[in-house]
Specification:
Strand order of the largest sheet: 2-3-1-5-4
Helix content: 25-40%
Shape: globular
CATH architecture of the largest domain: 2-Layer Sandwich
Mean pLDDT: 90
CATH class of the largest domain: Alpha Beta
Strand content: 25-35%
Number of helices: 7
Length: 270
Amino acid sequence: MLLQCKEVLKLNNYLSELKLTLTTPNEQMLTYDKGSLFHGVIMENIDLEYAELLHQNSVNPFSQFVRCENGINIWHIRTLTNIAREKIISPILKTDFSNVTLKHDNLTLEIINKDLQEITVNSLVENFYEEDCSRLVEINFLSPTAFKRNGRYFFMPNMELIYGSLMKRWDAVSNTAKMFDEDTFLQLVENTDIVSYNIFSTNFHLENVRIPAFMGKITIKIRGTQTMTNFANMLFKFGNYSGVGIKTSIGMGAIYANQKQRRRKIDDRK
């Protein structure tokens, strides 16, 4: 059922990422655990009707996280639908939105730069049909990542859980064909190997709860047909906006996946 996604070409949604560069008093470095406070800032700046709609959703059409990158605090807000972009990102893009206040910490952060990047879902699907994507993909887990099943936390990279999360998130925001198909899902899992990894365990603190998680990066190799390889790459590009796993709207599960070219073997024969 891999070609079923062709119907998704009808989707003209933008996938958007807004990066906000923040300054803090005394050059304080922000940690991932502040994600829940930044989620609060988003909820304070959207209308009540849309806020209620988000509370009713099992999967939110946005993700966000904050982290220190090379000594600079960056707040990332990623949306999966045009409505989410309009309701969440557009108000923050206004010129009078010049600072962020974390009420819990009594901390005000100045916004010194706003950078918006967008792609269309259509462009992802077009690449699926037109490109020969690499079979090697590097996935960076930028914020603490975990999965939950039957009340238990799983905090190791697992392709079954990663693919399942991505496909179900696509379906949650798609208004046309569904991405999740049992046969396709099983083929992806069976034909994907983790060939290298550099990960570490960590925790994400949420109020009085400590959620076990992991961060770092893995490289995967996709076997099978080129169609399957392209399909997997499309999912990971979508994942760069949706995130994976649990609690992506409060700062967990952010990823950045990119194709990785295989290094040619050096013939050292004389």
